[in-house]
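task queued by scheduler; priority normal; single chain, no ligands, no partner chains; default sampling; output format set to structure tokens
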Amino acid sequence: MTASVEEFRQRAREFLAANAVSRSEPPVEWTENALVAECRRFHGALADAGLAGITYPVEYGGLGLDKGYLEVFNQQLSRYQAPLLPAVISHGMCLPVINDFGTPEQRHRYQARMIRCDDIWCQMFSEPGAGSDVASLATRAVRDGDEWVLTGQKVWTSGAQYSEYGLCIARTDPSQPKHRGMSMFIIDLSLPGVEIRPLRQINGSSHFNEIYLTEVRVGRDCLVADEGAGWNVAVAMLMYERVAIGAGGSAALSGAVDSALLIAEAQKRGRNRDPSTRDALADLYIRERIQAYIGMRMRQASEAGQAPGPEGSIAKLNAAMLSRLTADSAVELAGASGQAWAADDEDGSRWADSVISSPGMGIAGGTNEVQRNIVGERVLGLPKEPDPYKGQPWESIPRS
């Protein structure tokens, strides 16, 4: 390690000690509004300290450093509870897509503000009739002079309620097969015709939203990449999403707990000597280490300049399965108190919330079934499922 990297490590260590809470401390509880505000403050402070946008070009608000520095920072970050969740999609998916596919003007206009979290972004993919099969989407974008007019509905849009912008894929040529004739657009969510409606989840939260687009007009400078290239951009974005979920750890994204917390809880409840409990916790720890190694492998591939590939689906699938297993182990350890707890028990809802929240990990970024298909086809070389409408124009394919 060079002296400059060691200096960077020390700066990161000092910054995090002053601006984040150690994982050895009790979990920090934030309301959504407080968490979003803290996320913006944290990333702004990172940028002021010269620790944000580590691998992005200097001219677009980054530091222009190689990915070894990012690995060093992430090693330090893993020891802290940092308010990152509201920016996971913005930084993990939207930012790299704008960096890879945006025009120089778009990168100058948006990237620095994204890095600082002055603006938070969301992705607008799924629709009521096109969930796992995103390519079946029906939202239309029609050219009108120098503008595009978008009309349609998106659903399961995480974080739209506090985002300033969204990356929206829409159909621009229905005469093309469903994987063609789509384009990606930057949508200012404050524009007339954009309506965001929260979706209430089983755990009482509203992290997801429906977004209605009614003749929303955007300039041609909001088109990302070429007209008709939307599917290629979307695939790249989904790969970044799976890498972010798989390499970033399941617990932070799902609301689940991890083995370290369960080990502490087992000691608190006097079950740390119970053989079945010890076996379950050891199994969870091993699976977490495997997930960490999968993430490390993906990050090393990224450092070598390789674009995200199907290994992201392996990581994402494993993260979803681990999240569910961890949540089940947590509520088993909690026993009856994982289902009913005293009003003065501040930690009482944690166990139940982990159980009812963890299934979402099997949906976000593509369902477990979609990930298994990708692994089967692109890793194992198995034949694709038959598609009787392959190559036919989207407008001629029957839809419900």
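post-processing summary
- The chain has three domains: 7-119, 122-229, 249-379.
- Residues 275-303 form the longest helix (29 residues).
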